[in-house]
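Weekly puzzle thread! Below is a chain. First person to post its structure in token form gets bragging rights.
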Amino acid sequence: MNPSLPSSLSERLAQATICLLASLPFLLPWHTMPIGSFHQEWLAAVLGIVVVALALGGTRPLVCLPRVAALPLLLLGAVLVQWQGQLGIMPGVAKLALLYLGWGTALMVAARHLGASRVMPALAWGLFLGALAAALLTFAGLVPYGPRQGGPLAQANHFADYLWLGAAAGLYLRGSGRLPSKLFWPGVLPVVAMSVLAGSRSPFLYALSLALLAHWAHRRLPAMPRRPAWLLVALYIALQPLPTLFPLSPDGVELESPTFRLQEQAKTPSIRLQLLEVAFNTALAHPSLGAGVGNWPVQAAEPGRVRPDNNPGVAEHAHNLPMQLAAEFGLPVTFALLAGLTLWMQRTSRLTSAEATFGLMLATVLGIHSLLEYPLWYAHFLAIASLTVGALDTGITVPPGRWTRLVGASLALIGALWLADLRRDYRVLENALASNKNPQALMAARQALVALPNDSLLLPWRDNIACSSLDPARVAVEDGLAVCARAEHFGLPSTVMAQRAVLLWRHGQHPAALAHVDRMTRAHPGRLGEVRADLENAVSRVPDARPLLERLDELEQR
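Winning reply:
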């Protein structure tokens, strides 16, 4: 599209919403069970739908469809094939995956339609001001989580990622002349300092990668600040002793520097390497279509999976995006996605603009984090990635006519209805977990839980709560086993596994129940105390299942 055309009112509103999307969800400090990030992701989904509706409702002469949008559409098609291919994936998980992918695709299209000259500055201001606000609020103790607990994000590694996305935004704003030099350092100093206090080790890589990108871009675009980028590296290293000056965060948690945590990690077996081994073996066992989206926990607890003794339990992800994709979607889809991302980076690296450099910086920080964890499984991080790759990509253009406004209005309406239902259903889950001390409230919450619609997107979490809270002595055995089997397919908490083991024993499947105790110890080798407590609690309801505890004693003595 032609960025020289004046922005319409809807496009200016879309820019403002992008700025909010890059800041508000990351500043929301409310995290409730069973989905700690629900409120942040729900807000991001609302703002994302508003961006799409405003962008497609503008008066531009053409609608631009980015090439990179083919990547989430490829994954979307793979999920549909798996769903229909009897791979054992849960319908609720498949629906959620389809919605995330469709939402991300829509954001890519909206960003390409608006253009990089509109999207990237709005994204930068949102990230820069949001990261600064997150750092200051956390340091002042105005959020319920301290630096080591991840500030408003309640996860230290995600917090550090966001802070360095803000630092990258600061470099772009300074290089493009939007942020005066005298305001740059007061803005980034609290951000870098807080990333040290958070204790995450990833910022070593973030800082170095941003400096290298700025150095590379400076040769073609002298306005890009090369020296400040290298000074950020020096500043981050110089601030490593900072936790010794603030040994306790406002919430009373002891602070440790990233350097200290790197040294400590070297003394223990690597959990991440074990996760990569599981992903590698799963990909080899299911090379064509993968094991199925959402089937990672089941694969990770298979017999023969060896875990370090310090492993706290079965992870939900491989903590590495390429290996996660290979395990769940197979090798052909993974190679196609990696090739598509490589082509996007090649196309973007040929652009001589500050926006392109900023986009590469954001992609690099998110990419590094995606090799160590799973930020793109969260809607607020996925939004940053989708807007970035969409805004900077090339593609095809089509005349909008009336259909684009119709699509924008339809998406807004469908999205509003979907989000309203999602919020209503989540309140049911929250109440079921928050009402465990009041018998009357607990009964009402459980009745509401059972009444949750069968087409709800939150059914996997409902099954988890239902299995954990049922009485194994009173529930109909087959019904209880069905609920707990679905809950285990989604995740393997020790409470759910203990309930299922006792139900199997009560059903007369004694060998299977004993084998399930073995599976519990394989799934949670670093949490055997909690495993015992959960199993004792379940067995106390069904005393005949006492041999399960004896089996656990045998396993602990080995």
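Puzzle host: Confirmed. Bonus trivia for everyone else. The domain at 470-557 is CATH 1.25.40 (Serine Threonine Protein Phosphatase 5, Tetratricopeptide repeat).
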